[in-house]
Amino acid sequence: MDNKYDAVIVGGGVLGTFHAYHALELGLKVCLVEKDPYPKGATTQNFGQVVPSGMNTKWQKFGRESLHIYKEIQSKFDISMRQNGTVYLASNEEEEQLLVELRAINSSNDYESKMLTQQECLKKFPGLRKDYVVAGLFFPQEVTVEPRVMIHKLQEYLVIQKGLDIKFDFPVISCESDREGVSVRNTKNEEVFGKKVIICNGTDFKNLYPETFAASDLEVSKLQMMQTKPQENYELKGSILTGWSIRRYEAFHECPSFARIKENEPKESLQKKWGVHILFKQAADGSVILGDSHQYADAAKIEDLGYDLDMDIDNFMIEEAKKIVDLPTYQIQKRWYGMYSQCKNSDIFQKTIDDNIHIITGIGGKGMTGSAGFSKKNIASIFNTKKINL
User: FAD dependent oxidoreductase domain location, by residue (predicted)?
Assistant: First the structure.
């Protein structure tokens, strides 16, 4: 039957799509089902940064594998990837010390990075303010993608060149196991069958497994971002991460000085209240994406985060950004927020039901960077292929 597959993937975001990619790479017959007419969740609402440098040792391995996968696909099919590297900019001696320590960690892990002096930073990144930056750490292998383009291009590539079946506008309401596999049914009573079903649809799995959802430690993060109007005669290459990223990203938690520096931070500030860390990324049209903030609520109480944009947060981020980079214009053409799920006490949520149904979600802010590499190992585990070393 045409509607029988080795794997049915529920959820067309980056995590689900890369699970489909790796299942196809194993020679399996795969169907990806997505509840909306096109993907429009967290995968399309982020910066589009692929930055293994910001991850802890475990996830950096997945992130580095992701880099290889992105580059391999880009060599065959344009998915909007650009390799301009990532830089972390220190604004004081404490942050510079963390950069020195992170460089040592990455050197021992054989991951390329380079310390930049203040003058090298100023020369490499136009508009960077001399009164902000004291040093930088540059990762040349890292890439960016256009998040509202990449997922569509990736799925197009998988359909055209790998034989993926995709069914959009397919809201799943039940997964029922029997001896033959799993029946996946939608609101129109349409049905597909999979030997294995992999559910990567964020917190939407609560509609399928409410008790499992209620017992989870999932929370939701709401992030506000903005996009300037195109900058005239201005180029800002790569991902620009600043002092508050240094103080937030998991990679720096492994630095010897991190605990002491965090302890000395002010206990109360607007940065902490709103979870702000300032990032810059220039989009393909010359505009610059700015952000972001982080506000949290239990996944079961997502409505506590509200459905509005807080202009006080946006205005605060713009004023902080102006202290770092003098852009030709800070006129904003777009504002939005994204939401992603993560776990409070673990790095990802995984639950197996009836042996053949696997829930994988709650990857948090690691999705764009970590999904490709993590999915490779996870698909190998689900289908009992030989262990893949990353």
Answer: 6-375
Under DSSP, is residue 345 helix (H, G, I), strand (E, B) or coil?
A: coil
Query: Does the pLDDT value for residue 386 go beyond 90?
Result: no
Contact predicate 96/143, CB 8 Å:
no
Contact between 236 and 121 (Cβ < 8 Å): no
Provide the pLDDT confidence category of residue 102 given band limits of 50, 70 and 90. very high
Provide the pLDDT for residue 29.
97
How confident is the model at residue 1, as a pLDDT? 57
Residue 74 CA from chain centroid, whole number: 18
Which H/E stretch holds residue 19? helix 14-25
State the pLDDT at residue 134. Answer: 98
Where does the chain show beta strands of DSSP type E?
4-10, 30-33, 49-50, 86-90, 114-117, 135-139, 143-144, 165-167, 172-178, 181-186, 191-199, 218-228, 239-241, 279-282, 288-291, 295-298, 332-343, 349-353, 357-361
CB 246 within 8 A of CB 98: yes
Using one digit for the tens of pLDDT, what is the confidence trace for 78-92?
999 999 999 999 999
* Whether the Cβ atoms of residue 289 and residue 321 lie closer than 8 Å to each other: no
What is the spatial distance between Cα 97 and Cα 20, in angstroms, rounded to a whole number?
A: 41
Spatial separation of the C-alpha atoms in residues 24 and 31, rounded to whole Å: 10
Query: Mutual orientation of helices 367-382 and 57-74 as an angle, nearest 10°?
Result: 90
Q: Helix, strand or coil for residue 362?
A: coil
- Report pLDDT digits (tens) over 173-209: 999 998 889 999 999 999 999 999 999 999 899 999 9
Tokens coding 339:
């939401």
Query: Helix (H) and strand (E) counts for the chain?
Result: 12, 19
Q: CA 146 to CA 171: how far, in whole Å?
A: 26
The answer to whether 279 and 89 are in contact (CB under 8 A) is no
The pTM score is 0.95
pLDDT in tens, 318-351: 999 999 999 999 999 999 999 999 999 999 999 9
